[in-house]
Amino acid sequence: MRGWPGVNWVWLPEVDSTNALAERLMDAWLADTEAALPPTLICADSQWAGRGREGRRWQSPQGGVYASFLSWVPLEALPWLPLAAGVAVLAGVKKLVPGVEKALKWPNDLEVDHRKLGGILCSSRVQGDRAWTVTGFGVNVTAAPLLPGEARQAVSLAELGFAGSVEQARLALFDAFLATFPSLLSHPEEVRRSWLSATIHGRGEILRVRTPAGVVQGEFLDLSPQGLLLLQTGSRVVTVASGEIA
Questions:
Q1: pTM beyond 0.90, yes or no
Q2: Where does the BPL/LPL catalytic domain start and stop, copy by copy (predicted)?
Q3: Which of 19, 26, 213, 237 is paired with 204 by a 20 to 30 Å CA distance?
């Protein structure tokens, strides 16, 4: 697989989790030096301990693109990481399946016709005025694995009309991600605008969100200046920082 200027990349046929490997690399680097590690992209053909939100674990079989991007970002960009990553991954999906336009589900999924196409998982370590970040993403290409603990089904790019190989999908997704993601993090308003134009949630739609504090239900209004979900619940506007839309 070819590389990208200014970006280290690592390819493995199998790994426990690209995010876990990126975090181990990040921790080892931080323990040894304060110098910045060049942006690093880690990818694998399969994962045997893939990770999701809320500690979910599953196997990620061959037939998908699984990757993690390790980079520095300014602290003010941290809230926008999953949304910017979603916009960047969707840019690659659109090149592979032009008919897919709106597929971003808050906060970190790609979904088409109520079926999960991909997901985003981010983590970070703060150091001074910057943060080391790991932005992981996975996209189903020729296979749509089962989703443990979820009622919804998965969908693959192949089911949506993509007739190419996993390798072709990987290159297109990485090209789009690396061309889009770093620049988006310098322009939060562009992240907000791009995400809102590509989300499956329409303004005024009633959303039911499971949060650590309980279930919140309300009318979707907008994203806050920090990238948080704004819901109208009766006479109040509620800001939702984390959770999962039912």
A1: yes
A2: 4-185
A3: 213
